[in-house]
Amino acid sequence: MKQFILSSLFLLYSFTVYSTLAPQKYNAEDSLLYYKKLSRKKKESYKDRLAANDKAIYWSRQVSDSVYLEQLIYRCDLYYYDKQYDQAIAQTKTVLDEATRLKSKRFIAQSYDNQGDIYKKKQNTSEAFTNFVHAIELFTELKDSIQIIKISKKASYIQTSLGDMDGAEYTIVNALDYSNTLKEPSEISWFYDILGRVYRERGLWQEAIRYHRKALQLENNKGSKASLINNYAITLLKSGDNDGAIQQLEVGLAYKDSLSLNTLYRLKDNYAFAKSRAGHKDAIPLLEEALNLRTSIDDIPGKYASHIHLAEAYMTLGNTKKTAYHAQQAYNISSKAKNTEAVVKALDYLIPVTKESNVLFKEYTSLSDSLTKAQNKAKFEFAKLRYDVEKAEERENIALQKITASQLREEIAIRKRNWALVGIGGLLITGLIFILYQRERSKKQRILDRYETEKRLAKKLHDELANEIYLVMNEVENEISSPAVADRLEDIYKLSRDLSRETKPIQTDENFPTELAMNLQTYTSSERKLILRGLESINWNVINPEVKIEIYRVLQELMTNMRKHSKASLVALVFKSVDKLLEINYSDNGKGVSLSRDNRGSGLLNTQTRLKSLGGEIKFDSAVDEGFRAELSIPI
């Protein structure tokens, strides 16, 4: 009996000890699973979790490279959660070295992302941004849209927080190229919200509002939507739409049960501030309430914002004592936080209402200059960092990818062919432009040549033919001859005189409308009247001299045709300018004519030719015993 009791006690002790020990594993996968789970148990001490991770790393080497790298990254997470940031950075460098050795581009990218998160936590923005850009470039090569968008959010946040709006816009637009692969559209709502803030800072209110609305359309989560509404309301406030901001913030406050206290109190404060901007009487109590709520949860940035809002509200009411108090509180908070931008904003309200304005103004000037320099430096550094990253990756790609001689020759051949095509295309375009130029030049030259010919004919008709006829007429009068011969000679003389007048040189300067009117009046008589309308309303100074000459000759042709054939007693010419076109309507009450193609005289055909040379057109409308009409249209 005694031996049985002792045996039972030994078995019970053995079972108890065995149950407290780690189970003996028979393979690497089981051992890895055990220590992996143990390292993730939050109830375990930090030291025990690190020890378990050491074991997991050891067993993961025997499973696969990817599992091994995962365990190395998790060790970095353990350091990060325990705020051991220097150790976390050292661990990410270890992961990066191992991932490079094992040629795992995905884990290299993930290491850069983790390193960026740690540097961001340490407020080393330039290092954080550099690592994020490295990660984005690598995930772009891997075509991992989700990671590109996730990391671009973090990179653009750094850029906007430091005032680099142009850089943030570049980062966001680049990331949006990958948004079509996302299953959940709400994942990019934050990008549109950032774009709204970017355009808000530039004062482009319509663009800003459009992107805020787009962000709200894509977001489904109530908490996230309330934050987007808050940002939209701020844009409306800055644009001067106080009532619109109030309406939006009322919508955001309706989600109060889904919001964190920070978000809820931020909405309350901005709601009260919008009311103060709109002149509501209950604004001050609401602002004071929001300040008390933020103080109760020790929301430092929130308290600063509430004091700034109260300073502005009291300044609007002319209460300098209250303005000074809240501006001083905001100044104290921002100075303690070493936030230059916030200090400058607090001084905006404090300087006008304090006796120490001269001293504070010097500080204000100095801080404003340093803030501007810091923002410009950030923009330059971010642009340089992105350039350096892209160049470094370009060098890596060249080193990793060996191009064979045949590929290189093919690339050179393609490049030469493309340059040859560009050259041929350039020559063809140049040749086409030259041909068009020559054609236009020839057209103008033909007009000028015709005009010069007409001038020579006019001179010849006047100096030679008309004078000779006049001498013959004198000789006939001095001798006895038939009256019919004298009348015939007089008709010939009048004809030569008319031809001389019709081909004489034309003034194309500011006197052109007067000369044109006088020329047209020569076709009237006691039995034939001319009505001119709109001639002086045309801006003849903008019309080329060649065009004026052709208009003059076309109207001469129409009037000559009328006098010879129509027997009209009334002629009307109406000028008007419509959409860069000069329109001239001619009409008479003569006997008209049939307008069949065979029945058109050389005069009408000549007018068509002249107008066609100008890119214009003329339309005729006539019938027997129904008068004659013509519509001229000339580009000017």
From TrEMBL:
Residues 550-636 form the Histidine kinase domain. It is an enzyme of class 2 (transferase). The chain crosses the membrane at residues 419-437. The keyword Ion transport does not apply. Keywords: ATP-binding, Kinase, Membrane, Nucleotide-binding, Signal, TPR repeat, Transferase, Transmembrane, Transmembrane helix, Two-component regulatory system. TPR repeats lie at residues 189-222. Coiled coil: none annotated. It holds the Pfam family TPR_7. It catalyses: ATP + protein L-histidine = ADP + protein N-phospho-L-histidine. GO terms for molecular function: ATP binding. It comes from the Bacteria. Its EC number is 2.7.13.3. Residues 1-19 form the signal peptide. This is histidine kinase.
